[in-house]
């Protein structure tokens, strides 16, 4: 029988598609139950969990995407898979409170478009498992943002809704007082509890208080915090008045170390009266580094005076991703250069931001918590850390993300600490169960492995596949 080219093409496409479907797990046979206490055990790491006041060598056992046990000497025989994390820090998955990820709309010069980035390329490789998009969308385009990004990302993407109904699309929209409706914004947020976790005001250039007061109205309706990027510095609305009488305790002031709107005392270089009032009232100080919101001349003296941020965030977007900001670990490194400890910066990327957005199921590794985990190494050397003015401060420590778990499974592994050697003849863990602890493909081992490379691995020398107990 003659096979037409079209038919051949359809056949090979079908084979390709079914192979792809298999490797993505759709056609795989169901996994056998795991009778052991853990799917995955992280062994011997230095656990830093601010919520539970843990700063010690401790193992973490994980099952069904949740933390099953935390403690010294958890048994490897109780887990399907053990990863040795000795010499590394084990942290709850990092939370980045201020990012811009509403891309894919095709709109130029807009944070609801080309100024934003797709989250997964910037998050998991830095230990970040949860991000908050800070106001790229408003109540009018949140559904589109949710469809395009939130529902399609591996990263847990949450949102602060812009008080501007049209979102962060440039001055024409962001200065339009008629598009700032606290009631409509709050009502929209109430429809998505745990996803819309805040209200954002940003980039406003006018003298009015309306954006901030409407944001607070929305925050009160949905019982969520407001995050303020204070826009243009206007004498008509001084920072001290914003934090004294417009914002509520629990609201968030981002770009805390920009120095552009009265954050710094001009005589001492330390925190201004406004920053001190913020702290006294329980308004959070968030870094929000971005492309133009972190200056050494501001941050260093304020830190030296003992004023530390509540949370470290990136303000990730196309304008910050490749300049001084780089990624959240680089921002954390900077805070260590000017006096913070590793324990403090980890707290400011985990439990603190979880509390700020009232998502206390995140940012900790209590038993029963979601098993989002960042495993970090501390490199030492000579490093330059660059601020918004392209000036640098030198440092000796650099955090590097070695391994990231999301919902209990490996989603990033820099040096293959979860992987077996390429020429191993047996799997270190039952490969039928691998989907319980990793999202990566597992190549068959044993005889099947040998058959793929008969020239390099003599088939007769390899034992038959075994079924691990
Ligand atoms: Zn921003």
From TrEMBL:
An annotated Gene Ontology molecular function: deacetylase activity
Residues spanning the signal sequence: 1-23
Keyword Methyltransferase included in the entry's annotation: no
Top-level taxon of origin: Bacteria
Region (Disordered): 448-469
Gene3D superfamilies (alphabetical): Metal-dependent hydrolases, Urease, subunit C, domain 1
InterPro entries: Deacetylase_Atu3266-like, Metal-dep_hydrolase_composite, Metal_Hydrolase
Keyword list, A-Z: Signal
NCBIfam families associated with the record: PRK09237.1
Name used for this protein in its record: Dihydroorotase
Organism whose genome encodes this protein: Granulicella sibirica
Organism placement in taxonomy: Bacteria, Pseudomonadati, Acidobacteriota, Terriglobia, Terriglobales
């Amino acid at each position: 029988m003659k096979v037409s080219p079209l038919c051949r093409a359809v056949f090979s496409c079908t084979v390709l598609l079914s192979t792809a479907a298999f490797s993505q797990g759709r056609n795989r046979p169901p996994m056998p139950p795991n009778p052991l206490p853990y799917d995955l055990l992280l062994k011997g790491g230095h656990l830093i969990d601010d919520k539970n006041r843990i700063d010690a060598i401790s193992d973490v056992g994980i099952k069904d995407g949740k933390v099953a046990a935390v403690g010294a000497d958890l048994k490897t025989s109780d887990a399907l898979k053990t990863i040795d994390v000795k010499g590394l820090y084990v942290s709850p998955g990092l939370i980045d409170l201020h990012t811009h990820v509403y891309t894919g709309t095709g709109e130029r010069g807009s944070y609801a478009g080309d100024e934003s980035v797709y989250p997964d390329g910037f998050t998991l490789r830095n230990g970040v498992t949860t991000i908050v998009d800070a106001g790229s969308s408003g109540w009018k385009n949140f559904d589109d943002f949710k469809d395009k990004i939130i529902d399609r990302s591996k990263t847990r993407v949450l949102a602060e809704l812009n008080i501007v109904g049209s979102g962060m699309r440039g001055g024409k929209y962001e200065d339009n007082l008629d598009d700032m409706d606290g009631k409509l914004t709050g009502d929209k947020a109430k429809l998505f509890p745990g996803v819309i976790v805040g209200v954002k005001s940003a980039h406003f250039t006018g003298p009015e208080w309306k954006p901030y007061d409407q944001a607070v109205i929305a925050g009160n309706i949905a019982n969520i915090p407001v995050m303020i990027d204070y826009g243009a510095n206007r004498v008509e609305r001084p920072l001290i008045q914003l934090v004294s009488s417009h914002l509520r305790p629990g609201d968030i002031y981002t770009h805390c170390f920009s120095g552009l709107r009265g954050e710094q005392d001009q005589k001492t270089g330390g925190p201004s009266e406004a920053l001190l009032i913020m702290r006294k009232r329980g308004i959070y100080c968030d870094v929000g580094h971005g492309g133009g919101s972190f200056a050494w001349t501001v941050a260093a003296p304020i830190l030296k005076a003992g004023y530390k941020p509540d949370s470290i965030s990136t303000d990730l977007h196309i304008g910050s991703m490749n300049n001084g900001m780089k990624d959240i670990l680089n921002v954390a490194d900077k805070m260590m250069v000017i006096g913070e400890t590793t324990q403090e910066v980890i707290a400011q990327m985990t439990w603190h931001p979880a509390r700020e957005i009232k998502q206390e199921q995140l940012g900790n590794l209590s038993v029963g918590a979601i098993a989002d985990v960042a495993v970090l190494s501390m490199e030492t050397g000579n490093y330059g850390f660059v601020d918004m003015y392209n000036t640098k401060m030198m440092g000796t420590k650099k955090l590097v993300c070695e391994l990231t778990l999301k919902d209990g499974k490996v989603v990033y592994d820099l040096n293959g600490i979860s992987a077996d050697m390429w020429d191993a003849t047996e799997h270190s863990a039952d490969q039928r169960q691998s989907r319980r602890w990793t999202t990566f493909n597992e190549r068959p081992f044993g005889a099947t492995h040998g058959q793929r490379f008969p020239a390099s691995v003599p088939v007769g020398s390899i034992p038959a596949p075994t079924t691990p107990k």
